[in-house]
Amino acid sequence: MNSISFVEKQFTKTPVDFKEQFGAYNGATFGLRPTLKQSNYYRPHNKFDYADHLYFCGSSTHPGAGVPIVMQSAKLAVEELIKDDQTNA
């Protein structure tokens, strides 16, 4: 039995599709390249160093990719926001 016979609809996505449909930089589906200088602590931090009140979360920011890790990234960004809000109050 050929499993392909069960496929009802098939489509292909290219980097061009990701760039046009999702605004992904250069059509990158997974964000930053997984090099040592773009891994773990070296990813963009959750609080921007050069502007006030600008925070980031997601798979291309610290700590990294994967749904549980992206949720941790969101938590870190919110913690930075709350800390700044309390400092500026």
UniProtKB/TrEMBL annotation:
User: Record keywords: ATP-binding included?
Assistant: no
| Gene3D superfamilies on file | FAD/NAD(P)-binding domain (3.50.50.60)
Q: Which UniProt keywords apply?
A: Oxidoreductase
Transmembrane regions listed in the UniProt entry: none
Signal sequence extent? none
Q: What is its EC number?
A: 1.14.99.44
Q: Name one GO molecular function term.
A: oxidoreductase activity
> Which InterPro entries does the annotation name?
FAD/NAD-bd_sf
Per the record's keyword annotation, is Oxidoreductase included, yes or no?
yes
Q: What is this protein called?
A: Diapolycopene oxygenase
Q: Which organism is it from?
A: Lactiplantibacillus plantarum subsp. plantarum
